[in-house]
Amino acid sequence: VLSIMGLLAALAVPRLAGRPAAIERAEATQRLEAAIAQARRTAQISGTPQRLDPAAIVADSFWRADEDQTPAVAPGLVFYPDGSSTGGTILVKGRALMTIHWLDGAVQVR
Hints:
Helix content: 25-40%
Distance between the termini: 48 Å
Oligomer: single chain
Strand order of the largest sheet: 2-4-5-6
Structural class: alpha+beta
Number of strands: 6
Order of helices and strands: HHEEEEEE
């Protein structure tokens, strides 16, 4: 009986500790990549710019403009009908997760 209880405790403790950071980062990457692809497609099909708020998709995330953009030039992460975007970096918990190229909206995961 004690050995069974010990085995159950050994299996339960890792589950109580929470999810590994690598798994959380991979899931955040997948969710953001899917949202970015959807925003790009919608902009191209509808002919209207599409704004994306990373914080609405992944907790503790935010968008940061490229260094050469000022806040007046970069209103946020926006995808345009021609395939371009405002570009920038998406950070999760203060760490860069991906970069979006301004010219073609391509995503580079870091």
